[in-house]
Design the sequence.
């Protein structure tokens, strides 16, 4: 029996003190805290921090008489983040508790403006994240277009070499930051409570904090551009890091700030899954998407602190002249490489596991069959999560560190393809002799399997040390990780959006526009990145603005495909605008005939998700099974909402 | 339901047959048509072995890809909702299949372990496969490598055809230079190597991390400041090769490349001897040959700290003294 059954129905109201006058958080409209106050406070925070930094360290300008120094910039950006959090209301509770007072309750404004506030409702946070990650994705995508424009010609340059290096670095960093949250943030926060039969997340304030600090991270990393950018790529290797100008502060602080959000989100989701499952939801009945969220959340919680500390070490090097990464003063550039990749490899699975979760969750719905080898899938996800901490040195095979460890890291890296391969066992098994409905989400899931296969197999190439000599640091590895992250995670995100947006917004996404979007994205994704394997094998290193003239044909092909791939995202954006606002079509209560618990609450989802906490009776994969038990007892007795279990599998 | 359950595995058997046939065809075609042209070519023994490893991995990978795609193709043509296939079945039979799961896990484990063992053997037998092994390499080619390296450091090494040739690669923003300790430690921007010779690359950097990627030689080793990253290769015939930096090292990273050549042993000796004589005046200004060099405050990477004494980088400035 889990805790949820004893939870009181009222969640937030009980903490509100009997106020003599309306606290500011409860004031209506623009008079309380919202995005606007956050922006004003962020600006003030930046100015204050910057002034203070200059005040305490006026003797350390990096350009004579510029009034700029690293301490002022660091404190300015830190002030901006603090001001942002203060302005949006994230600090109301901790500050009130610090001085021993009861905190005012969070705003309970209804209507559209709640999306611009510090909301502790997981459904609001989920939708906020949808907008947040799309914002991240589109800005990162624009930078990718710039990269491909530069690579149209090996010798004629659109950008200067400095600008190009900044664009490449910013693209990589922004996309990595986005990808850590692209599914955990929007779909994890929105769906986990609904899927496990909970009324809320374990820590609603921490959840809201994770989103707003994520946005603050976006501002910090983009502040690199006005500061002159940084040229280290997303990996930020020292000593180039140490050598870099003020833009590096934004990178280091940006990762630390985003890291705070990742830790908060991961911690919150893991605790929620462990403690807030509805009665009867045993571990063998947990939806597979929730398993993937648990594995991802564990990685976020355990791996991110390393990145956070590594970023802080770098900030200390840049500001107060420590020498963590400075070889001449006793530090080591290898320290950064190891810390970064000790985070960086689990990070890779933070970006892969949610995609597997969505694929495995959606397959039974569209094949009308139970999930094949459920336990293998769940153990595979946990296995990947565990093993991912033991493979990081494969990023450093050519770096000159301990060569005798290479066979071990080759073995662990190749072993991680075993639990990863389980997802293919699950996928193939579930599809076996099915009646597949080729709906939009299913198309995206199939594309994920197609792309990730190429991404995964090329990963084995990279893990083989002799082959790594040829492919490390070239376009081959670039193509490999775009196939896993974009080909896997991003396609899964799209599958998830097309699948769950009807639940989240109450509106169906347009199928015709969606099909154009899918085919453009799938075809041009492959036409963009597959040639890059060949480009890499032919010897083009990553992050270069000049290349051998005989590679121009392939590069131009990839560039033009990339522009069309970029266009497919405009089609997606148009579909969002068209389906949600221009021509909204009301979604049926269960448009895909899913047995999942999230589809069995009312639509739109009531504030507390379930009028009565359901008692879970079985797992949600009893497709095509006449006489299957009902999923849950919602209070009306077992069998109240089981109609989908044995009904016709083909509604079309 | 009984109709469905009878011969439930028939589709799987058909898929497996199609898979086996296509896999064999694809593998054979790859091996004979593509394999000989795969990266990084066959200029050196190392490159030849790296190419062989890559091809064997491809031979293993292609059937995996073909397998999943065959299954996909079958599902597209047989298991769509619009096709008149049998109704899907639920229940325990569709939820798991011990035989299939066991086969899957066993075969993928065997494949993975075999690849790991193969990769390890290839790595060891090919002396690190041309990858940077750091200052203390564990897999060395036959011959007195250690003695040659020690002699190189002491300035007593000489080279004649047939002997091991140590070469130092120095990365700096944004070029590679090469020092030949067996020829008085002269420094040049041309990487010329003798054919049929074991080469020991000692790769280091003066500023940030670079990566020495001699594509056709099958060599890649990071150039770390303060670190001697050792990589080996064995040249065979003569030919040209490209050197590129494959680790982002700042704004001109994209322009950090040059080309080199493997020439006959006598041509090499002639070139090295004449270059040694021609550059003797410059060599006298260079620091004594060492595995690593610490840049001084005025050097290429000098002035990390804004100490008020920044001077512009000077191309004639010596780049420092031997690290103690």
Sequence:
């Amino acid at each position: 029996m889990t805790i949820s059954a004893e939870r009181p129905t009222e969640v937030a109201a009980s903490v509100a003190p009997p106020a003599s006058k309306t606290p500011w958080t409860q004031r209506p409209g623009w008079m309380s805290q919202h995005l606007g106050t956050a922006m004003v406070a962020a600006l003030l925070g930046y100015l204050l921090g910057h002034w203070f930094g200059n005040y305490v360290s006026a003797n350390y300008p990096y350009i004579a008489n510029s009034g700029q120094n690293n301490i002022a910039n660091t404190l300015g950006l830190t002030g901006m983040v603090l001001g942002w959090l203060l302005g949006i209301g994230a600090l109301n509770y901790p500050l009130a508790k610090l001085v021993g007072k009861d905190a005012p309750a969070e705003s309970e404004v209804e209507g559209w403006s709640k999306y611009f506030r510090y909301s502790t409702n997981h459904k609001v946070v989920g939708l906020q994240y949808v907008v947040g990650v799309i914002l991240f994705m589109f800005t990162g995508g624009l930078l990718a277009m710039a990269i491909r424009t530069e690579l149209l010609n090996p010798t004629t340059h659109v950008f200067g070499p400095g600008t190009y290096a900044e664009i490449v670095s910013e693209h990589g960093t922004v996309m990595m930051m986005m990808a850590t949250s692209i599914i955990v943030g929007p779909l994890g926060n929105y769906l986990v409570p609904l899927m496990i039969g909970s009324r809320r997340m374990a820590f609603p304030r921490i959840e809201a904090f994770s989103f707003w600090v994520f946005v603050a991270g976006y501002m910090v990393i983009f502040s690199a551009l006005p500061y002159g950018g940084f040229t280290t790529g997303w990996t930020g290797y020292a000593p180039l890091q140490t050598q870099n100008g003020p833009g590096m502060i934004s990178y280091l602080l940006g990762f630390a700030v985003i890291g705070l959000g990742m830790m908060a989100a991961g911690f919150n989701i893991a605790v929620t899954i462990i403690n807030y499952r509805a009665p009867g939801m045993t571990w063998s009945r947990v939806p597979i998407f929730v398993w993937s969220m648990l594995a991802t959340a564990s990685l976020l919680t355990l791996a991110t602190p390393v990145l956070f500390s590594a970023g802080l070490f770098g900030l200390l090097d840049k500001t107060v002249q420590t020498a963590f990464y400075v070889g001449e003063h006793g530090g080591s550039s290898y320290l950064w490489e190891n810390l970064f990749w000790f985070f960086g490899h689990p990070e890779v699975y933070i970006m892969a596991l949610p995609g597997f979760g969505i694929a495995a969750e959606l397959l039974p719905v569209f094949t009308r069959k139970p999930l094949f080898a459920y336990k293998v899938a769940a153990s595979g996800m946990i296995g990947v999560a565990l093993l991912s901490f033991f493979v990081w040195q494969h990023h450093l095979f050519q770096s000159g560190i301990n060569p005798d460890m290479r066979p071990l890291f080759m073995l662990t890296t190749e072993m991680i393809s075993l639990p990863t391969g389980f997802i293919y066992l699950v996928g193939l098994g579930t599809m076996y002799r099915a009646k597949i409905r080729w709906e939009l989400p299913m198309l995206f899931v199939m594309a994920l399997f197609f792309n990730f296969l190429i991404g995964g197999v090329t990963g084995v190439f990279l893990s083989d040390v002799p082959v790594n000599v040829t492919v490390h640091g070239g376009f081959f590895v670039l193509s490999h990780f775009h196939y896993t992250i974009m080909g896997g995670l991003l396609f899964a995100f799209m599958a998830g959006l097309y699948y769950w947006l009807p639940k989240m917004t109450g509106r169906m996404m347009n199928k015709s526009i969606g099909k154009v979007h899918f085919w453009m994205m799938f075809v041009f994704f492959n036409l963009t990145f597959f040639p890059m394997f060949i480009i890499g094998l032919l010897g083009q290193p990553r992050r270069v603005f000049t290349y051998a003239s005989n590679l121009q044909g392939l590069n131009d092909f990839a560039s033009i495909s990339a522009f069309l791939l970029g266009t497919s995202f405009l089609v997606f954006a148009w579909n969002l605008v068209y389906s949600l606002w221009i021509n909204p079509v009301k979604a049926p209560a269960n448009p895909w005939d899913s047995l999942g618990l999230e589809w069995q609450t009312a639509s739109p989802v009531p504030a507390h998700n379930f009028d009565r906490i359901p008692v879970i009776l079985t797992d949600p994969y009893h497709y095509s099974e006449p006489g299957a038990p009902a999923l849950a007892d919602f209070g009306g007795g077992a069998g109240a909402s089981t109609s989908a279990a044995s009904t016709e599998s083909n509604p079309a | 339901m009984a109709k469905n359950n009878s011969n439930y595995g028939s589709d799987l058997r058909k898929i497996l047959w199609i898979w086996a046939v296509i896999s064999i065809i694809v593998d054979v075609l790859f091996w004979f048509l593509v394999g000989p042209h795969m990266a990084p070519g066959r200029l050196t023994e190392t490159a030849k072995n790296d190419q062989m490893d890559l091809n064997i991995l491809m031979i293993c990978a292609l059937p995996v890809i073909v397998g999943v795609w065959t299954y996909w193709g079958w599902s597209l043509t047989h298991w769509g909702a619009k096709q008149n296939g049998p109704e899907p079945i639920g229940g325990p039979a569709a939820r798991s299949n011990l035989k299939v799961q066991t086969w899957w896990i066993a075969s993928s484990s065997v494949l993975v372990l075999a690849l790991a063992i193969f990769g390890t053997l290839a790595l060891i037998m090919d002396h690190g496969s041309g990858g940077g092994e750091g200052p203390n390499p564990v897999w060395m080619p036959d011959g007195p490598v250690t003695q040659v390296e020690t002699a190189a450091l002491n300035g007593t090494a000489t080279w004649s055809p047939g002997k091991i040739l140590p070469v130092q690669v120095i990365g700096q923003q944004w070029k590679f230079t090469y020092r030949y300790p067996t020829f008085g430690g002269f420094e040049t921007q041309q990487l010329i190597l003798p054919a049929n010779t074991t080469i020991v690359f000692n790769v280091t950097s003066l500023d940030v991390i670079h990566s020495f990627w001699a594509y056709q030689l099958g060599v890649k080793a990071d150039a770390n400041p303060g670190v001697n990253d050792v990589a080996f290769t064995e040249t065979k015939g003569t030919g040209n090769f490209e050197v590129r930096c494959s680790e982002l090292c700042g704004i001109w990273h994209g322009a950090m490349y040059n080309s080199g050549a493997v020439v006959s042993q006598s041509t090499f000796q002639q070139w090295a001897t004449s270059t040694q004589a021609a550059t003797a005046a410059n060599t006298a200004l260079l620091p004594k040959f060492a595995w690593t060099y610490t840049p001084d405050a005025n050097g290429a990477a000098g002035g990390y700290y804004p100490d008020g004494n920044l001077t512009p980088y000077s191309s004639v400035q010596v780049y420092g003294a031997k690290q103690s």
Summary: Confidence is low (pLDDT under 50) at residues 1-5, 639-652 of chain A. Chain A touches chain B through 104 residues (CB under 8 Å).
